Every structure is written in C-alpha cells, then in structure tokens.
C-alpha cells in the first residue's frame, strides 16, 4: 500500500474505542518518541471543553470531551506514519474513505482548536527531557529547585521528579511547562 502525500503537515482525525481517547493519546505520544517520529507526527489532541457544574451548591469546573471516540493528530502522512498511528492500541482507523485519510480543512481546525480549553492543548506540548535527566523547576512551590526526572506522563502533561529537600529525596509532580532542561 502506498499513500500519496504532499509531504505537508495537516490535521487528521482518528477514531478510537470510546473512553480510550486519553490512552490512545498517551500511547501514540510514547510511540512517536520511542520511534523518533517527531518529524512526521507533531501534535496529538483530545479536544476538551470546560464547563461549570453546580453540585450541592458548589461550583466545579469539569472537562468534557467535545468529540468522544475521536482524537486529532497533526502529522505528515507517509506509509510509516500512517502505520504507526493505525497500529496504536485503541485506534480503530482514520476518518476518511478507505485507506486514505482525509485532512481537516483550515477552517475546521481553527474552529475546533479555537473552541477547546487551554488544558487540552497544553497536553500536546512536546517535552525535551528524558527519564534520568536533570531539570530546573521554574514555577510553583518548588521554584528554583534542581531535580531529576523519574517519570513522564504524556497523557496528563506531568513529570515526576526527585528533589533534594532538607537532605532527603522527595518526589514531586509538576506540569511540562514548569520545568526546563539544565
């Protein structure tokens, strides 16, 4: 099978098992990283919107999936990138006719990405650190602390770190945007 491609980065929609959207996003991000596909698969987004719900007289912000069962992927379609996405656990296929995925139009992308909450886009951040590397925490309660990365959770855009505090190693979890590589 050969997919004609214009070698152009475009947004595509992949269909997933219902309720597996975040797992698919995490699995695909891991695959992209481990297979060195960052030059072909760029962003993976589960579109979310925040709503304020009233429970027992208390307001609570709750995130809801805008398109349950679907994940957006910004990528250049090639035989290899198509295969990687298509064979990610939880993915049932691309939205499109037959084996050729159909990209979203610019107006569709702007409408979808413009309406989602910042949290779901923040989850698409590429992180330039690996487990075992040293980082500096640049915001929050542990600002200016040096730390070592022990785990990266792509689905939540969080990193677990070990910080030396008062002579003891303490594990903390911070967002991708709260660290920088030393």
Gist?
This protein is α+β, with helices and mostly antiparallel strands and 182 residues long.
The first-level CATH class of the largest domain is given as Alpha Beta
Largest sheet: 5 strands, antiparallel
DSSP helix fraction: 10-25%
- The average pLDDT value, as a whole number, equals 83
Structural write-up:
It comes from Pectinatus brassicae. This is Transcription termination/antitermination protein NusG. Keywords: Transcription, Transcription antitermination, Transcription regulation, Transcription termination. The protein has 182 residues and is of the alpha+beta class. It has helices at residues 21-34, 79-86, 106-115, 118-122, and strands at 10-16, 41-45, 48-55, 58-65, 70-75, 91-94, 96-97, 100-101, 134-137, 146-153, 158-165, 168-175, 179-181. It folds into two domains: 10-115, 2-Layer Sandwich (Alpha-Beta Plaits); 133-181, SH3 type barrels (Roll). A hairpin with a 2-residue loop joins β3 and β4.
């Amino acid at each position: 099978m050969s997919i004609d491609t214009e070698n152009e980065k475009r947004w595509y929609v992949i269909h997933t098992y219902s309720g597996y959207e975040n797992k698919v996003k995490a699995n695909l991000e891991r695959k992209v990283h481990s297979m060195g596909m960052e030059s072909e698969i760029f962003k993976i987004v589960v579109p979310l919107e925040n709503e304020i719900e009233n429970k027992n007289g208390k307001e609570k912000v709750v995130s809801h999936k805008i398109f349950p069962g679907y994940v957006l992927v910004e990528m250049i379609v090639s035989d290899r990138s198509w295969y990687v996405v298509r064979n990610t656990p939880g993915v049932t296929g691309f939205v499109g006719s037959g084996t050729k995925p159909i990209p979203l139009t610019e107006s569709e992308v702007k409408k979808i990405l413009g309406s989602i909450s910042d949290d779901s886009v923040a989850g698409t951040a590429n992180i330039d650190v690996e487990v075992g590397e040293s980082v500096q925490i640049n915001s929050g309660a542990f600002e200016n602390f040096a730390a070592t990365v022990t785990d990266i959770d792509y689905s939540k855009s969080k990193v677990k770190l070990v910080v030396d505090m008062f002579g003891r190693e303490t594990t903390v979890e911070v967002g991708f945007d709260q660290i920088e590589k030393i």
